[in-house]
Design a protein that fits this description.
four-stranded parallel sheet, Rossmann fold, 2 domains, Vit_B12_bind_prot, alpha/beta, ABC_Transporter_SBP, five-stranded parallel sheet, ABC-type Fe3+-hydroxamate transport system substrate-binding protein, single chain, 257 residues
Length: 257
């Protein structure tokens, strides 16, 4: 069996003890295959009330805590987790499935479909079928946005990002979609120039990974129309895509009034 990066995943049978190092994957597994998760990161906030052992953060998990849980499979992501940690787990004899950082909604859903049907040997979950249907169409473009995901320094969505594709399907292109980097770090003066020049006409501020609020973010762009969004709905791939379609569309609609 191979993961998204074409690495071997030595499983003799579907795993019954799983540790997830990716919040979005944690939610997807908990909803799809209840009872299999034994560990997750401190940032795995969904589903609410998830009762599993915590193993630290995605970037810096406590590998000893992961190993103590005796997982049959660890779930990781090529962007959120460090290759050295993945290698250390594999050297310790743990099977690790690494999901490629998805550039589109379709890519994320295809990856999840492979994980569930191949590694878990379970049917494609209903939420995935519904998400595929909801996100298949693309709405006409009505705005061009700057989408910061961090401040101090400013970091924005660039090329080939899942969040960028989510917005595009709801009619919002973003100003750095053709940038050479996936997460550019432009100066504030450059970001302001995007609006002054007409290259962008909307500021989109999610509440994670940086928690932008009405008092923290818009203050740097006086007079620029902005919208506050759920970062989970914007960047998590999994069951949240179902509710996220309507919720994001509703939030964005406020900017069109």
């Amino acid at each position: 069996m191979k993961d998204d990066l074409d690495a071997d995943v030595p499983l003799d049978c579907p795993p019954s003890r799983i540790v997830s190092l990716v919040p979005a994957l944690t939610e997807a597994v908990a909803v799809t295959a209840a009872g299999l998760l034994v560990g997750a990161t401190d940032y795995c906030t969904h589903p609410p009330g998830l009762d599993v052992s915590r193993v630290g953060g995605s970037k810096y998990p406590r590998l000893d805590a992961v190993l103590d849980l005796r997982p049959e499979l660890v779930l990781a992501n090529s962007e959120e987790n460090r290759p050295g940690d993945v290698a250390a787990l594999r050297e310790a004899g743990i099977a690790v499935w690494v999901m490629a950082a998805p550039a589109t909604v379709a890519m994320a859903l295809n990856s999840l479909r492979a994980l569930f049907t191949r590694a878990f040997a379970v049917p494609v979950p209903d939420w995935l079928v519904q998400a595929d249907r909801l996100w298949r169409d693309e709405r006409p473009t009505w705005a061009r946005a700057v989408v910061p995901v961090w401040r101090k320094p400013w970091v924005v969505l660039g090329r080939d990002t899942f969040g960028g594709d989510v917005l595009r399907r709801l009619g919002v292109e973003h100003a750095y979609a053709d940038h050479a980097e996936r997460y550019p770090r432009p100066k504030l003066t450059e970001l302001r120039e995007k609006f002054d020049s007409g290259e962008a006409d909307l500021l989109v501020l999610p509440d994670e990974p940086y928690e932008f609020t009405a008092d923290d973010g818009p203050d740097s762009f006086p007079g620029v129309p902005y919208v506050l969004l759920s970062g989970r709905y914007l960047t998590w791939y999994g069951p949240s895509l179902v509710a996220g379609h309507a919720e994001l569309a509703r939030s964005l609609a406020a900017a069109r009034v």
